[in-house]
Amino acid sequence: MSAQWKPGPLGNREPFSAYICDEGALDALRPVVIEMGWQPEKCNKGGLRNAIQSLSIAASPAILMVDLSESGDPLNDINALAEVCEPGTVVIAVGQVNDVRLYRDLVASGIHDYLLKPLSANQVRDALTQAQAVFSAPRSSEGEAEHEHVATAVVGTRGGVGASTIATSLAWLFSIEHERSTALLDLDVHFGTGALSLDLEPGRGLTDAIDNPSRIDGLFIERAMIRANDNLAIMSAEAPINAPVMTDGTAFLQLEEEFRQAFDMTVIDLPRNMLINFPHLLAEVNVVTLVTELTLASARDTIRLLSWLKTNAPNTHPMIVCNKMQSGAAEISKADFEASIEQKINYQINLDQKAASNAAKLGQTFIEANKASRTVNPLRDIAKTIVGVSEDDGASLQQPAKQGSMLGKFDIKSLLSGSSKKSKAPAAAVEAAE
C-alpha cells in the first residue's frame, strides 16, 4: 500500500470488504454498503488482525475498510496488512484515536483515509465514494491521448544463439540512450537470465502474475517489477524446476496490456516453446527479432519460424539478426543462408568472447559493459530501427533475398528433405538437423 501507487481497474476482485470491531460501527456501515450496491455480508465482525488472517488465504477486495480500535501498534499492523493485501487495494482505516500525527503516519504508509468513531452514514458514504473515484480516474495524470508504444519480442532460432543477451542489451539501449521508459519481460520462467544479466534478484513478480492473473493491474506492475535504472524495469522469475508452468497465457496478455499503458517500450525475451504454446503473445508486438547463426539447424528453424509468423502473426515485422559471426568459420555462408530463407539478414553481430566475459564479470548487459567496442554498434542500429518502426510501419525490415543461382547452389529446403545433389554439407549434419 505504498503512498505513491495509483490504483488500476477493479478487474475480477470483490468490490468491498470491511473488518469492524463493534456492532455500532457495523450498524452505521451496512446501510451505506447496501446503498452502494455491495453485499452487506462483506461487513465482517473483527478488526485489523482478523483482516490480516482472512486476506492471507483469500484475495483482497478493491476497497478494504479495517478497524484499528483493538490494535496496540497500528502502524506496525498496517505494514503486516500490506504483506497480504493485493496491490492496488484502497484501504480505509477506522479508529477511535483522534491524533493528527497518527493520521499523517497512516496516510504516509499508503492508507487512503482514516475515519474517526463513532461512524456516521454521511462520513462513510463520502469516504467510500472517494475511494471508488480512485478507480475511475484517468490512467494518465495529464489526460493526454494514449501514448505511442512499441513492443519487440526477441526469439532465438536455436538455444545458445544469444537471444537473451540481445534482449537485455536492447532494453538497456531503449532506456538509456533513447531515454524511453522500458519494460523487459523474461518469459523463460525457470531458467531466464534477464535479471542475472542486470545483476538483479528476479523477485516473485512473474510467478505471482501467473498464479493470480486477476491481481494484475497498474499497481501490481509498480510493486512486482524490479528496477534496473530510472527508465528500465524487469519482470522475470527463477521458478523451482519441479514446478511446471500452469497457465493458459492470460497473465501474459494482461502484463502486455499494462506495459502498453505504463511504458514506451516493451522487450519480451520469448523462448521458442512459449511462442508455440501462446501464439497470442504476438498479437500486439510490432517487431519480432529473430536471432540466428550461420548453421544448418538455424537455417532450417529460421525458415520454419518465418512461416509460422506469416500464418500466426501477420501484423508483426520479422527482423533477422545473425549473432556470433566468425569470418571463415561458419557452417554455411551468409549468401547461402539468405538464399535459403528467402530473406536478407538485417543485422549481423560478430563473435566477441572477450566482450561477453567482460559483461558477465561486471554484472552488466553486453552493450553497457562494452559501450566503446565496435562489436556493439549493430545493437545500436537494431535499437534505432525498432524505436522508429512505428513511423515507417516496418517497411525497412522487409528485404527479401534475390532469387537466382544461389538457390541452386544451396537449397536448404530440398537439402533437409535429402533431395539436394549440389550441396556439399555432410550427410551427418543433415541427419542431425532433421
TrEMBL record:
Protein name: Pilus assembly protein CpaE
Gene3D superfamilies: 3.40.50.2300, P-loop containing nucleotide triphosphate hydrolases
GO biological process: negative regulation of cell division
Classification via InterPro entries: CheY-like_superfamily (IPR011006), P-loop_NTPase (IPR027417), ParA/MinD_ATPase (IPR050625)
SUPFAM superfamilies xrefs: CheY-like, P-loop containing nucleoside triphosphate hydrolases
GO CC annotations, alphabetized: cytoplasmic side of plasma membrane; cytosol
Species in which this protein is naturally found: Aurantiacibacter atlanticus
Keywords: ATP-binding, Nucleotide-binding
GO molecular function terms noted in the UniProt entry: ATP binding; ATP hydrolysis activity
